[in-house]
TrEMBL record:
GO molecular function: RNA binding
Gene source species: Swingsia samuiensis
Its biological purpose: Involved in transcription antitermination. Required for transcription of ribosomal RNA (rRNA) genes. Binds specifically to the boxA antiterminator sequence of the ribosomal RNA (rrn) operons.
Family (UniProt): Belongs to the NusB family.
Lineage summary: Bacteria, Pseudomonadati, Pseudomonadota, Alphaproteobacteria, Acetobacterales
GO cellular component, one term: cytosol
Keyword Transcription regulation: yes
Gene: nusB
Protein name: Transcription antitermination protein NusB
Keyword terms of this UniProt record: RNA-binding, Transcription, Transcription antitermination, Transcription regulation
Amino acid sequence: MTSSEVQKKRPTRRSRTIARVAAVQALFQCEQSEETAETVINQFLRHRQISSSASFEDGHIPDADLKLLQEIVKGTTLEQDKIDHTLSDVLPTQWPLPRLDPVLRALLRAATYEIINTNTDNRIIINEYLDVAHGFFFGDEPKLVNGILDTLNRRQEGNS
């Protein structure tokens, strides 16, 4: 196998970031449409996975790590009660989970799923979701995301 073939098979950082953006979009869609994770993932795979020349502006998810996308969406929906409980413990009292913007709620759920359930370094997860937050929000939301995920990380490290 040539090095270019290996690179095509191995997910890149960009493909993982794109998967996380798509996961947030899919989780938002699951909540808004009340469709299952499987239904939404299938829709994403049929209608949004296009060649690398397609763009987010067109509603596509070019070059996404589809395995990671599926893992995050399915895992987050299966573990949502546990995730919501965990988030409720670290959210400011004036910002309970139901009060959050639905996209922000989807982002925090996906990030929390990864922090709790994967072996990915939490600093990478936090940085990735901060980048995602900056893509969706232009106000104080990225600061809120950073604070919440940092608190989750510290608690996770304290429980290790």
